[in-house]
Prior knowledge:
single chain; alpha+beta; BirA Bifunctional Protein, domain 2; Rossmann fold; 2 domains; 5-stranded mixed β-sheet
Amino acid sequence: MATINDIVALCKRLVFIFPGFEIYGGMAGAYDYGPYGVELMKNIRESWWRAMVYQRDDVEGLDAALISNRLLWKYSGHESSFSDPLVECKKCGARMRQDKMKNVKKCDACGSADLTPPRPYQMMMGLSVGATADFEINAYLRPETATTTFTNFKNVLDSVPHKLPFGIVQIGKAFRNEISPRGFVFRMREFEQAELQYFVKPGEDEKQFAEWKKARMSWWISEMGIPAEKLRFTPHEKLAHYAKAAEDIEYEFPDGFDEVEGIHNRADFDLGSHTKSQKEFDIKSTVPENNESTTKLSYSDPQTGESFIPYVVETAMGINRAMLAVMHNAYIEEDLGDGKSRTVLKLPGRLAPVKAAVIPLARNVPELLERANGIVADLRKLGLGRIELENSGNIGKNYRRHDEIGTPVCITIDHQSLEDGMVTLRHRDDMSQERVAIKDVPKKLQSIIK
């Protein structure tokens, strides 16, 4: 099994992911995404959006602000409870999350037992917004996309009317002041989330929770190409303040199973926390008293006329973690015999950063280059994604490079192509080759990428 270090090395060598601000020594928990990393992230993002929005009639999209009013996080409970237990070593000064320490009685860095008692460490990133703020925290960078969805519940419902159940999704950046970012892009201070908030009638939440568990596990298997045996559900041992039930989809990383997506039954906590006139509704969750909201976040049943606070079933996935899991699952080192080997990313074609590479066998033959450029132009018209022209002239190195970045097929134009109008398709997974008429290449590629 590949290690995370294998993935880190490949990411840096092949312009997937770089440490952020590396020329100044870097910054813990910050990474930049290069040309191929951007493409893979985009493809995962689009697969999720397609499954959640385009293939359904009951889900709408949203893109809310990153900088948010402080009151939002006061009434969501984040300002008072969104913290981790911080422990400091008095000997070496290391700071650690107590719940992630190897031994809670010893420093992970130096082994000293001289530690401070744990204290709450606020994970939200506070901001001082406006010329008259005087450096007082009056806003936050959002630590999740969910809460800004709840405050837009009525805006979406009034503009695109739906009967319950219906959902709202967001994909976007979130920010957390992590004590100890770790695991490459697994835990960062700035990351990207893809979240669904699905609004249901009270009493139907448990059924919808079970249905979304099935739907999300199916997506990981069918769309991300991860075998079922590398995934599992794990219930939360301790529920968050908002949760009625919670389970994680976990992927088997080199160090064991860890979370890639959470599915939560949030009951009526969220809309109940942010709604105006709370006492008018039978809110089951324990919510903070809110006298500052200006809107009733309720739903009126068109048949009975009853007005109530909907329950929420949430699915929450980190795009960065998804990318790490997908790359780890696809990474293979193959022994080719005779002392030769190759590294290959066997990504599903729809996720591959480059969909096809077109390679003229000799870079100094104008006729071959002209024919190659024509094929590239035709393939780009299909809108499948990135199509690369490889003009280095070394066919073996080109094949190996595209194996490593996961390109499903290489298309080689040779001297015979000028005579018979045929090209060689070399397939990534089994390295098999076939001759195909140039006119049939677009249709062939579409079938490979599906």
